[in-house]
Design a protein that fits this description.
This protein is an alpha/beta fold and about 240 residues long. Helices cover about 40% and strands about 20% of the residues. The strands form three sheets. It has a five-stranded parallel sheet, with helices on both faces. Strand 11 and strand 12 form a beta hairpin. The protein is elongated and about 55 Å long.
Length: about 240
């Protein structure tokens, strides 16, 4: 498996031994590697330089890795692999909710992280490629909102666009292909390809929650992505009126 060309990686970990291990391993594989011991230092580096992937420890002094993940995901589609010393399912789900792409636990096998990194960088770069078509493909989603299919972002008539992660994009495309139909979680999981974590019902619920927020859909009283209790979800391109 060849390395993506000119791939840049930022390793963020306050543990000197772990950070050095990852930096040395990725550098030996030909990656352009940066390193930080804190989230604050990582933010300064990311403000001045683009990277393809962030290997991010969750337990950092002051600002933690989950907070940094959430902040990065608001403004960037950079690949994020969270590294944790705890095998905690709740923490893994929280990392997913914050926008992480991958989650690995210590002690880890560097070869496994390398394989995940290569796949993730390819996906991120593929998602960011713009097709050289004369017009971009824009798909209506609901009133006042459309999907820029090439840019993988939601465009609103009255505001700034909202970038979608790979999982959010694939989920929305699944809903758009089946408007008005109730889709089970299993059916939706089949549409979410190229995910490295073990899929579960909770994965779909988390992605639906994130997609609702980006669609400005009230989670307490959704109008666009409706919950069908005991069955799954239904996408309503013509939102139902508020109760």
């Amino acid at each position: 498996m060849s390395m993506p060309l000119d791939a840049k990686v930022l390793v963020v970990d306050d543990d000197v031994v772990t950070r050095a291990c990852l930096v040395d391993y990725f550098a030996a594989e030909g990656y352009d590697v940066r390193e930080s011991a804190t989230a604050e230092d990582a933010e300064q580096q990311l403000a001045t330089e683009m990277v393809d992937l962030v290997l991010l420890d969750i337990r950092l002094p002051r600002k933690d890795g989950l907070t940094l993940t959430r902040e990065l995901r608001v403004r960037s589609d950079v690949g994020i692999i969270l590294v944790s010393g705890r095998q905690d399912e709740v923490e893994r789900i929280i990392g997913l909710e914050c926008g992480a792409d991958e989650y690995v636990t210590k002690p880890f096998n560097p070869r496994e992280i390398l394989a995940r990194a290569k796949n993730l960088i390819r996906r991120v770069r593929h998602a960011g490629l713009q097709c050289p078509a004369p017009e971009r493909v824009v798909v209506p989603v609901c009133e006042g909102c459309a999907l820029d299919d090439d840019g993988r972002q939601l465009c609103f008539e009255d505001g700034e666009p909202a970038a979608l992660t790979e999982g959010e994009f694939q989920l929305l495309r699944a809903f758009l292909a089946h408007p008005g139909q109730t889709m089970s979680r299993d059916a939706l999981l089949d549409q979410i390809r190229n995910r490295e974590w073990v899929p579960s019902d909770r994965t779909v619920d988390v992605l639906v929650g994130r997609l609702r927020r980006k669609l400005r859909d009230d989670a307490a009283n959704p109008r666009i992505i409706l919950t069908v209790h005991g069955a799954g979800y239904r996408f309503s391109p013509s939102p139902r009126p508020r109760a």
